[in-house]
Design brief:
With 109 residues, the chain is mainly alpha-helical. The chain has one domain (3-99): Arc Repressor Mutant, subunit A. The chain is 39% helix and 4% strand. The chain is built from 5 helices and 2 strands; from the N terminus they run H-E-H-H-E-H-H. Helix 2 crosses helix 3 (37-45). The radius of gyration is 13 Å and the shape is globular.
């Protein structure tokens, strides 16, 4: 994966305000690469510890936390979102209609 792509992912994810979430696909679309949702996930997974990127604000299209082999990361992600006021339904989905973030039509990267 190109370093430039990861930097662009980080920049876009930094724009998601507290208390809101975006899907991997929405981040990819904001990048101008709508088919790159998995690459967005890989870029976020590759962030170094302590990075200033709010990775926890990115969920799947259904509003679910989908961190493979997560260990403590999935509960941490849910706790960070809950601290920001994001609610989850009984099956663990954030309400994308209520908490979903829409990127500006013309993303200036």
């Amino acid at each position: 994966m190109r370093h430039g792509f990861s930097c662009r992912v980080a920049e876009i994810v930094r724009s998601i305000p507290p208390g809101r979430v975006a899907s991997y696909g929405a981040v990819a679309e904001a990048l101008g690469s709508p088919a790159a949702a998995r690459a967005v996930g890989r870029a976020l997974a590759g962030l170094p510890d302590g990075a200033d990127v709010p990775w926890w604000r990115v969920v799947n299209w259904q509003g679910k936390i989908t961190i493979p082999r997560a260990g403590h990361a999935a509960p941490l992600q849910r706790a960070l979102l809950a601290d920001e006021g994001v609610g989850f339904d009984h099956v663990g989905r954030a309400d994308m209609a209520r908490f979903g973030w829409r990127f500006p039509e013309e993303w200036d990267d």
